[in-house]
Amino acid sequence: MAAPLAGPEIERLINILAKLPGLGPRSARRAALAMIKRREQMLAPLAAALEDVMRTVRTCTTCGILDSSDPCSICSDPKRNQRLLCVVADVADVWALERAGVFRGRYHVLGGTLSVLDGRGPDQLNLATLPARVRDQKVEEVVLALSATVEGQTTAHYVTDTLGQTAIQITKLAQGLPVGGELDYLDEGTLAAAFGARRPF
């Protein structure tokens, strides 16, 4: 068995970084080394930022977005159109849509998609509050901004069935979304085209 390359504190940092999406052991090692070498410019501010996030960030009880206030800044913004609701799988999808600047309504974050293989059913998602929210906020259109994967489309059908008793327009993103594509990886132009060409679901 090979001896550890660094002390236990550094190995612990590397192991934690390696669990982040897009970072394997090698990339985590490089990132840890860069931070340690520049501890005043990088490591100290990172530690402070992580502590702030741990202390202040929470999940909005209205929509499911991560923010430092509850309700979040989007839910409490009077300039947002509360009659227009966009259903997304994850907070990363909200960030992608906000970067693109194509949506001025409010969001409903499901916290994932339905997946039999992963054991994720309707009870594991933020679905129970959706019909009441649509009714109480007098929502006129629900936009299903879910990924063009099997799980995403299964979830879209389930949401449509859940809202079937309400007389609202349900639309989905159209052109520009590749089959199997994830919203968070799409550029702003693709997202803008998909939103502009949404159609009834």
Explain what you see:
The protein has seven helices and seven strands, in the order H-H-H-E-E-E-H-E-H-E-H-E-H-E. It has about 200 residues and is an alpha/beta fold. It folds into two domains: about 10-55, Orthogonal Bundle (Helicase, Ruva Protein, domain 3), CATH 1.10.8.420; about 65-200, Dna Topoisomerase Vi A Subunit, Chain: A, domain 2 (3-Layer(aba) Sandwich), CATH 3.40.1360.10. The strands form two sheets. The protein has a five-stranded mixed β-sheet. Helix 4 (about 90-100) links the parallel strand 3 and strand 4. The chain starts with 7 loop residues before the first helix and ends with a strand. About 25% of the residues are buried. The mean pLDDT is about 90.
